[in-house]
């Protein structure tokens, strides 16, 4: 007779892991992440074994790419089952479910042994991943806004003024881009060339919060995007 331990291992390998991957997660049997430009959105399988069965739940963890890079850790990504101390947020999945408390599933022998796996996947799909996305978006917003203060912009503007190009009035983060606003016009080839150089300087800094630089005129109309 197939034991609960054997069913648990089979269920994770043949049902749970493939189902999580269909939700967009990537990873191994016990740790998964949802690809994102600025954050590690992590899901970790937490197991509580006994002699005749194994209960399981999920740990959720949100870590900024920039914070993880500063650790110089040999691992390619954080482990959501480990507490590092610099996470943006971490919780057990039960905390974001309607019950608001720890929830554990068990795979047991019987004709309905897959139901706990289906229920666990539904919890990840309907509650775990939306909460990770929401908190990542909120963190991006809280760390967005002005990218450089007026004082910090002076160095950039000094270089622009030497080329007789209008100054950058605002440098803000929005939707994964650095947005520069100034009194430029689309037909000003000199401004475009100089701003392309300034954009390259911003992009070379390796700030993972943005992957492109957008230039707008003072009315908010798009002019150029780099690269």
Summarize the structure.
With 227 residues, the chain is an alpha+beta fold. Helices cover 36% and strands 26% of the residues. The radius of gyration is 24 Å and the shape is elongated.
Radius of gyration: 24 Å
Structural class: alpha+beta
Kindly state the mean pLDDT as a whole number? 88
Domain count: the total is: 2
- How many β strands by DSSP? 11
How much of the sequence lies in strands comes to 25-35%
Number of alpha- plus pi-helical segments:
5
Helix content: 25-40%
The gross shape turns out to be elongated
The largest pleated sheet is described as:
6 strands, antiparallel
Instruction: Give the topology string: H per helix, E per strand.
Output: HEEEEHEEHEHEEHEE
Element layout with pairings:
Blueprint lengths: L3 H19 L3 E2 L3 E4 L4 E11 L4 E11 H7 L17 E4 L12 E2 L8 H28 L2 E2 L3 H13 L5 E7 L2 E6 L6 H15 L8 E5 L5 E5 L1
Parallel strand pairs: 9-10
Antiparallel strand pairs: 1-2, 2-3, 3-4, 4-5, 4-6, 7-8, 8-9, 10-11
Helix pairs in contact: 1-3
């Amino acid at each position: 007779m197939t034991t609960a331990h054997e069913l648990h291992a089979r269920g994770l390998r043949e049902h749970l892991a493939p189902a999580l991957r269909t939700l967009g997660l990537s990873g191994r049997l016990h740790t998964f992440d949802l690809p994102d430009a600025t954050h590690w959105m992590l899901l970790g399988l937490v197991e509580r074994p006994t002699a005749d069965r194994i209960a399981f739940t999920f740990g959720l963890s949100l870590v900024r790419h920039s914070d993880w890079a500063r650790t110089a850790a040999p691992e390619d990504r954080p482990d959501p089952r480990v507490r590092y101390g610099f996470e943006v947020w971490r919780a057990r999945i039960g905390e974001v479910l309607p019950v608001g408390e720890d929830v554990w599933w068990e795979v047991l022998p019987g004709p309905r042994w897959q139901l706990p796996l289906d229920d666990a996947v539904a919890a990840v799909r309907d509650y775990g991943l939306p909460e990770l996305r929401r908190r990542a978006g909120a963190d991006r917003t809280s760390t967005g806004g002005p990218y450089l203060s007026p004082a910090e912009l002076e160095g950039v503007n000094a270089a622009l003024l030497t080329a007789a190009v209008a100054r950058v009035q605002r440098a803000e983060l929005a939707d994964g881009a650095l947005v520069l606003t100034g009194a430029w016009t689309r037909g000003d080839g000199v401004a475009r060339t100089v701003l392309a150089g300034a954009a390259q300087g911003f992009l070379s800094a390796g700030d993972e919060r943005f992957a492109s630089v957008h230039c707008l005129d003072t009315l908010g109309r798009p002019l150029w995007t780099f690269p």
